[in-house]
Design a protein that fits this description.
Layout lengths: L2 H14 L1 H39 L3 E6 L1 E4 L2 E6 L2 E2 H10 L3 E16 L2 E10 L3 H4 L4 E4 L4 H5 L4 E4 L3 H4 L11 E4 L2 E9 L13 E5 H9 L3 E2 L1 E6 L5 H15 L10 E5 H44 L1 H9 L4 H37 L8 H27 L3 H6 L2
Parallel strand pairs: 6-11, 8-10
Antiparallel strand pairs: 1-13, 1-14, 2-3, 4-12, 5-6, 5-9, 5-13, 7-10, 8-11, 9-10
Helix pairs in contact: 1-11, 2-9, 2-11, 2-12, 3-8, 9-11, 9-12, 11-12
Length: 403
């Protein structure tokens, strides 16, 4: 038999039992679809993390107050970062391009009859550029306005929605922070939630205004440092540590009473976790592919039994061992590849629906589609070999006598 004729006979056998062929493919369809959807979810989550790293700034270091240690024993009293620390860092650290102090507290904010409790951050004008923000409406306050302690407010992107107002329309309007009126002069771009914090739910005001009119303190919640060159981040961290230890009068051998965190490290940990879950979900989905392959092997074995006399007739007419083996392998392979194609379609549609309806981040990867096809073909070949070999090894005389 010619190769083309063998393939034609195999396809005719599949068409002769349409319902059974479809039910056989169903396991592959579900498995491939699940793999495509799960990998799309995982890839989308990783892409979202990478975008957040870029949004936060991979070249940023954040300094936080730490625990006070004496003789290896932690005291309850936390050491604060102060304006003196900020000035020392701004003046005496190499490999750093910007230093931004942040004086933050959750406060009640009123607009007319509406009242919300959000984070109010007193900072300097370079906060926007260092934190990679843009202004969707209005402007940022200037250094002169900061020094003059002007009552200006720049809103995070979620604040207008919390007040049920249009962002652009709020420019020039008034809000009250601790009963003190502030004029809205700008609205920041959206960042998205970052772990337990949402920087979009904050109001930025001038640092000196926060110090002298609102909070009455120079104890900073954090200091953000922008490294001039990402490749020299470790050198910058050593310099920052040296300056702060000098400012805090920490003796050699004593532990630091402050913390230095890299934004990229925090989100990289989250990215690794997301990647692990992606492989886990894809692995669980791949199990259904194996189950589908077992189903194909089962049906092919039944088909061999049903077509024993047919195989005997073909062998009697001159069909070789290879002809019979190749025919049944083609049947298994076609079932898996068609099932894989339908699975890719349904998996892609599932990923799109999750993105549209559930607002989950999904990204359909060409690699995952190719991998699903290769895997489905491998399943067809692997689970089709035994039934094909069984059919090819039948004795023609015994097969012709089979009832």
């Amino acid at each position: 038999m010619l190769i083309g004729e063998i393939i034609q006979v195999a396809l005719q056998a599949i068409r002769a039992n349409k319902l059974r062929s479809f039910l056989t493919m169903l396991g592959i369809i579900i498995g491939v679809g699940a793999v495509i959807t799960m990998v799309a979810l995982g890839t989308g989550a990783q892409k979202s993390v990478q975008e957040r790293i870029q949004a936060l700034g991979p070249d940023l270091l954040t300094l936080y107050p730490g625990q006070n240690f004496r003789g290896g024993i932690a005291f309850d009293m936390r050491v604060s970062l102060t304006m003196d620390d900020y000035r020392a860092l701004a003046a005496g650290v190499r490999h750093v391009s910007d230093v931004v102090p942040e004086l933050t507290r959750n406060l009640q904010v009123k607009r007319g009859s509406q009242n919300i409790n959000v984070s109010v951050t007193g900072t300097t004008p370079n906060y926007v550029t260092v934190r990679n923000y843009t202004l969707t409406a209005g402007r940022m306050f200037t250094t002169g306005e900061d020094e003059a302690r002007r009552r200006y407010a720049v809103l995070g992107s979620a604040i207008p929605e919390m007040f049920n107002a249009n962002p652009a329309a709020m420019i020039g309007q008034e809000i009250q922070i601790r009963g003190i009126p502030f004029e809205i002069i700008g609205v920041l771009s959206e960042k998205g939630a970052q772990g337990f914090q949402n920087p979009d739910e904050q109001i930025v005001i001038p640092l000196q205004t926060a110090r002298y009119r609102i909070l009455g303190t120079d104890r900073l919640r954090s200091i953000t440092v922008k490294v001039a060159d990402v490749t020299q981040t470790n050198l910058a961290m050593l310099e920052i540590e040296r300056v702060l230890r000098r400012e805090h009068k920490i003796r050699p051998g004593m532990d630091n009473d402050f913390q230095i965190r890299r934004q990229a490290d925090i989100l990289a940990t989250f990215e690794q976790t997301t990647e692990t879950f992606t492989f886990l979900l894809a692995g669980i989905a791949a199990v259904s592919l194996i189950v589908g392959g077992i189903g194909i092997m089962n049906i092919m074995l039944v088909s061999v039994t049903e077509r024993t006399r047919e195989i005997g007739v073909r062998k009697a007419l001159g069909a070789t061992h290879f002809n019979i083996l190749f025919q049944f392998l083609i049947e298994a392979l076609v079932l898996c590849l068609v099932g894989g194609l339908l699975g890719v379609i349904f998996g892609s549609l599932g990923a799109i629906l999750l993105s549209k309806l559930a607002h989950w981040n999904t990204s359909i990867s060409p690699f995952s589609i190719g991998l699903a096809f290769v895997f489905s073909a491998a399943v067809g070949l692997f689970f089709g070999i035994w039934p094909a070999r069984r059919a090819a090894s039948l004795d023609p005389i015994v097969a012709l006598r089979y009832e």
